[in-house]
């Protein structure tokens, strides 16, 4: 415990009493936190802080955790402001407890050059200055692997690396041509890589050739509905290819949204091989909250609201995803927040675009889907997969995803006992179509604080609830 002196300002100072503290690594039990001047000044055992004239809030039973980090969200700007903007996407993230979001480059134009990268950061700055008070999550744009995401020619990596980009992906599409993918890896080999941060290639691992015109998982439900299916093979083949490229070029590879038992099995075995080749931590992967929550059976009930790429699979796959997440084979939970307009999502299955918007519900959905409330060890694993681990993969500033004394106060107050019904009309993002609509979830984000300022929720309401 540390006691040092920061000028005490009663107005900008707050003490959260009796919070169940999660550090980004583990639960520490009930603690008090003093936040002053935007910094976590003290973390102490309860009742050790004796302060006068300071606002105090007893939040017994609630969790305090580091603000979450999402490695995979589609914020749609520039190009598709009718679906989402950087301002509304970050507001959705704040509602979900996020402090940092990595945006995907499938914008229009694609984020394949410095101007678009800078424009996205500028749009965030404008959104922040348009707020009367409060804050917005940080933004870290990922950039494309190929020019225009067309899968033909590698981007010019140098200016993007110089700007601070560490994540590269053609997400939404696989770079299908092996010779182009070789050119991409060779171009990265020649590029001036930063010494202090790891550059990662994020693979949208799905073979377009094998996917064909599928709109949902290829199985009993697609056969019954007479809809074109997407085989497990289309993912399994592409995952094995990503693993091979990473190993051959000794480059960090992150596989986005895994959905099949076969992909999980291949990654589990490959991680052992990577470790033997002194490439531990070079292979990582993610799962989405919706693949932990739903299966293809739900698509029959939900229609295009549950149309997503890769598709919702079978119960046996979902079981493997949960298991792999808890044993660490799957490193992180990423939202793949992919908003569309109501009109687009109202179209029939074959014509509606792929995508589920889910930043707002990701934490409660992930904890609910894994029965994590029953076992603290399990809850810690899920929280870690949404805080410290993705922050490390994003090469985020060192305090991101962790809750420590003297760091900026980027944190979340979460009520693990709250029972609520999801109403997408209340979402902060633009997309109000959601497979979670009407679903009863446990656990709710009450407050998201970034740099000591509220990005979502407010203290008065939290106080009234106590
Ligand atoms: Zn995506």
Could you characterize what this model shows?
With 466 residues, the chain is an alpha/beta fold. The protein folds into 2 domains: 13-64 and 409-465, Roll (Urease, subunit C, domain 1); 67-393, Metal-dependent hydrolases (TIM Barrel). It is 32% helix and 21% strand. The chain has 16 helices and 18 strands. The protein has helices at residues 86-95, 114-130, 157-163, 178-190, 208-211, 220-225, 233-249, 261-276, 289-293, 296-302, 315-327, 342-345, 362-369, 376-384, 388-393, 459-465, and strands at residues 13-22, 27-36, 39-44, 55-58, 63-66, 68-73, 98-103, 138-141, 167-169, 200-203, 216-217, 229-230, 252-255, 283-287, 332-333, 411-421, 440-450, 453-456. Strands 1, 2, 3, 4, 5, 16, 17 and 18 form an 8-stranded mixed sheet that branches. Helix 8 links the parallel strand 13 and strand 14 (283-287). Helix 7 (233-249) runs parallel beside helix 8 (261-276) and helix 8 (261-276) packs parallel to helix 11 (315-327). It is globular. The two termini are 27 Å apart. Residues 1-11 have low confidence and may be disordered. Bound molecules: zinc ion. Zinc ion is lined by residues 72, 74, 104, 171-172, 336, 338. The site of zinc ion has 7 residues, from loops.
């Amino acid at each position: 415990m540390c006691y040092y002196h920061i000028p005490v300002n009663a107005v900008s100072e707050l003490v959260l009493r009796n919070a169940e503290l999660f550090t980004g690594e583990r639960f520490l039990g009930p603690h008090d936190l003093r936040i002053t001047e935007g910094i976590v000044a003290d973390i102490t055992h309860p009742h050790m802080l004796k302060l006068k004239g300071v606002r105090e809030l007893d939040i017994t039973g609630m969790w305090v955790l580091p603000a979450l980090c999402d490695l995979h969200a589609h914020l749609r700007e520039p190009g598709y402001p009718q679906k989402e903007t950087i301002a509304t996407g970050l507001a959705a993230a704040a509602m979900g407890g996020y402090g940092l979001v990595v945006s995907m480059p499938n914008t229009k134009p694609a984020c394949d050059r410095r101007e678009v990268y800078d424009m996205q950061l500028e749009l965030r700055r404008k959104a922040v200055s348009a707020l009367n008070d409060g804050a917005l999550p940080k933004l870290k744009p990922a950039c494309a692997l190929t020019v225009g995401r067309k899968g033909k020619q590698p981007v010019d990596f140098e200016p993007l690396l110089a700007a601070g980009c560490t994540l590269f992906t053609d997400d939404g599409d696989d770079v299908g041509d092996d010779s182009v993918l070789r050119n991409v890896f060779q171009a990265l080999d020649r590029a001036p890589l930063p010494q202090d941060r790891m550059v990662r290639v994020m693979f949208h691992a799905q073979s377009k050739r094998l996917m064909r015109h599928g709109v949902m998982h290829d199985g009993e439900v697609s056969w019954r509905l007479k809809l074109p299916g997407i085989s497990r093979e289309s993912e399994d083949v592409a995952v094995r290819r990503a693993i091979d490229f990473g190993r051959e070029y000794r480059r960090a590879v992150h596989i986005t949204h895994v959905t099949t038992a076969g992909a999980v099995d291949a990654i589990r075995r490959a991680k052992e091989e990577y470790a033997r080749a002194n490439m531990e931590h070079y292979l990582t992967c993610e799962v989405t909250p919706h693949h932990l929550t739903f299966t293809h059976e739900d698509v029959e009930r939900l229609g295009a609201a549950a149309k997503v790429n890769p598709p919702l699979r079978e119960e046996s796959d979902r079981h493997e995803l949960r298991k792999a997440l808890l044993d660490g084979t799957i490193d992180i939970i990423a939202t793949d927040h992919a908003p569309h307009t109501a009109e687009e999502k109202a179209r029939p299955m074959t014509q509606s675009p792929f995508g589920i918007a889910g930043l707002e519900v990701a934490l409660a959905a992930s904890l609910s889907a894994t029965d994590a409330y029953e076992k603290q060890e399990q809850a810690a694993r899920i929280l870690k997969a949404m805080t410290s681990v993705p922050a490390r993969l994003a090469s985020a500033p060192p305090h991101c995803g962790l809750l420590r004394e003297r760091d900026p106060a980027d944190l979340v107050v979460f009520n693990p006992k709250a029972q609520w019904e999801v109403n997408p009309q209340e979402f902060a993002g633009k997309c109000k179509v959601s497979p979670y609509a009407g679903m009863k979830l446990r656990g709710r984000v009450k407050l998201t604080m970034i740099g000591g300022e509220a990005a979502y929720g407010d203290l008065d309401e939290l106080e009234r609830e106590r």
